[in-house]
Amino acid sequence: RKEVEQDPGPFNVPEGATVAFNCTYSNSASQSFFWYRQDCRKEPKLLMSVYSSGNEDGRFTAQLNRASQYISLLIRDSKLSDSATYLCVVNPNAGGTSYGKLTFGQGTILTVHP
Amino acid sequence: GAVVSQHPSWVICKSGTSVKIECRSLDFQATTMFWYRQFPKQSLMLMATSNEGSKATYEQGVEKDKFLINHASLTLSTLTVTSAHPEDSSFYICSAPPLNTGELFFGEGSRLTVL
Questions:
Q1: B46·A87 Cβ contact <8 A
Q2: Which of A102, B48, B63, B99 has the fewest CB neighbours in a 10 Å radius?
Q3: Strands, E, within B1-115: which ranges?
Q4: DSSP alpha helices (H): ranges in chain A?
């Protein structure tokens, strides 16, 4: 089983649609969780951290279920500019110098069309 | 936010040659930097942890003699792909964590093509 597993998609949705991505992780001791966005041939950029209580940033909502080892990202009112690959990222450690030892999912491709 | 710069962003080389990629933290010091590799349609895989003033720590399966890492200063880490082969063609990305920020910043990535 992969350490971090995502549905690779691709997801093709019209503008204005709501789309949800799911992610599961295998290490139950994992401490921190993130969603990154990666545009084609570019570096990943942090979209948002994921907290146990769930968190929202504008049109984006992230949820974490530690019991099920499951993370989700919901995008509402999709824009053309949301087209990208969304990476589910897990850190088995709380921070410090081990912060960079992130485990990346393979990414979910989203294409938003007019 | 903090800025991490990589150079070159694109390199094409002949098989058997060596290629050096630089990773710089522009507005913060980084005692630790991380090197990732990403093949097409695959996830980023951590190759090694670069430690300022000491030897790099390599992940399992990564050849340390092939991927030479030097972290000579608090703002610069270099990755040298020695005797490159076509199978080394990939997207190499570095990252650095500014202390106490809770975020990891990535360089722009370096796309290596070995002919």
A1: no
A2: B63
A3: 4-7, 10-13, 19-25, 32-38, 45-51, 57-58, 67-73, 76-81, 90-96, 105-106, 110-114
A4: none
Of A5, A24, A11, the closest CA to residue A63 belongs to A24
> Of A77, A40, A81, whose CA–CA distance to A58 is shortest?
A77
Q: Does B42 touch chain A (CB under 8 A)?
A: yes
Q: What residues contact residue A42 under an 8 Å CB cut-off, 6+ apart?
A: B108, B109
pLDDT digits 0-9 by tens, A26-73: 988 888 899 999 998 889 998 998 988 889 999 999 999 999 999 999
Measured CA to CA, the distance from residue A74 to residue A83 in angstroms comes to: 14
Residues B99-115: pLDDT tens digits? 656 567 899 999 999 99
Residue B67 distance to chain A (closest CA, Å): 18
Catalogue the E-assigned strands of A1-114.
4-6, 11-14, 19-25, 32-38, 44-50, 55-57, 60-65, 70-75, 84-91, 103-104, 108-113
Asked whether the CA dihedral B99, B5, A33, A26 is positive or negative, the reply is negative
Q: What is the pLDDT of residue B99?
A: 64
Inter-chain CB proximity A97 and B111 less than 8 Å? no
